Amino acid sequence: MNCADASFPVSFLFPQNPLCALWLNDFMSKALPKRSENYSEWYNEIVKRADLAENSAVRGCMVIKPYGYAIWEKMQRALDDMFKATGHQNAYFPLFVPKSFLEKEEEHAEGFAKECAVVTHYRLKANPDGKGLIVDPNAKLEEELIVRPTSEAVIWNTYKNWIQSWRDLPLLINQWCNIVRWEMRTRLFLRTTEFLWQEGHTAHATENEAIEEAERMLEVYATFAENWIGLPVILGLKTPNERFAGAIETYCIEAMMQDGKALQAGTSHFLGQNFAKAFDVKFVNKENQLEFAWATSWGVTTRMIGALIMAHSDDNGLVLPPKLAPVQVVIIPIYKTPEDLATISEKVNPLFEELKAAGISVKYDDSEHQRSGWKFAEYELRGVPVRLGIGMRDLENGTVEVARRDTLSKESKPIDGIVQHVRLLLDEIQENIYNKALKFREENTFMVDTWDQFKEQIEKGGFLMAHWDGTAETEAAIKEETKATIRCIPLLSAEMAGKCVYSGKDSAKRVVFARAY
RNA sequence: CGGGGCGUAGCACAGCCUGGUAGUGCGCUCGGUUUGGGACCGAGAGGCCGCAAGUUCGAAUCUUGCCGCCCCGACCA
Asked: Tell me, what's the ipTM?
């Protein structure tokens, strides 16, 4: 940040004035940038100040800090349970993909070629000309290894040995791991060179079964996004142009962020027999005939944390959905003397245990090196859904101050029955932030029927529901002129014939256009 | 890879133009007063001024080279 940043108008008045810097320092130590003034700066600051992640010493790679990682762990837990409930098992495949594997499925290879990290040597040695280490030229690998950008190649090479009979199918495997895609420009959680994800890879005996699987997992993702993240999503199909490299069909869930831009929150692919053919994975069917297996793959990434932030948070900081909040309830004592604190703690300790017993993750912050006001602001910044404040006055009245993060409202409640109240409140917050996000999306989704309307609206942001003639040429032309892409062809909307917003040709249904992350 | 900007304390920055004891705020340590929405006062600790070479009696400051990072574009979950 510098003094010429447009979000700080004062700096324009006194760009040379050292007070400008002092003022900024003071300002920055407290308030966040405002969403309305500088959305991306607001996002970056939330990630850092809420202690979720930071840039690492390694270009393009992030350090996910404990608080951010705790959110990922909660996401993993919920998703993993859902994968298990739909019959999947976890396994682990190698980080390295021999180049020859990656080459086998041609479209796949082409799609990923330009963003691969390549291992060429297996040894370093002392630099004979001075300090440090150099790559040992005698340790060149016979075949280069690619750091996995995705694991279809390694996995289908393995499946070849696992699949012989229809009895071996379906094969339903998932893995949690890291992957590397060499990105030009990165942003914490949204796009980094290395990121964490899960990738499901399944093999089936029939085309229909594989398509059902791809759609089933899309449903799982949608359920997770809506019920856990509180993020309303549109289920859809990608256009051929936006498809995963090597897929027959790519399904996706698309969400709207608070700046009106779209973010893809998960994808599921029907891969047909492309990988089975590339890796020669055949099975004998019930009629004793050899057939290629049918495949799917599906994944969600740490990008969902970015989606979570951008969907719900406000100018005071992070707003976490209770189901994914590492700390759901924080209790803050308000006291003057150590004796008061002891008295308050006596009352809080059983309450703390009771909340814990009710399955609520609760933190009692009785640390003495920060004042209560500081704690209020800090936990607000970190998005803790519910805050309970207890002071001497409350002890006299038998009350607790209950503050909710989503509405920033406070009320005094009797301490008796507070656990039940908190439990209901957490549910209410979970529901409220979903409804808020849904309302926002609805208010920023527009039916657009003319090209002029399209060009005007896209500048203001949001989802544009418009007819498209189905050609790649039109799709490319629209992208070229407006930077808007077809986010998806919605699965659940009815066919309703019309005319393409760009070419005027016939169109069967509206698709979702937006600028995207 | 093209265009722009920046490297000075843990963080954010001033100082550089015009060379001469390295500064400010936040944070940190200690002491005191405070404490229902980011307290205040006092005393401290903390620096190869990105790296290297050059100019000079003297370089954070001038010159040259290198390295790194950030922003804007093309690519992308």
From this structure: 0.89
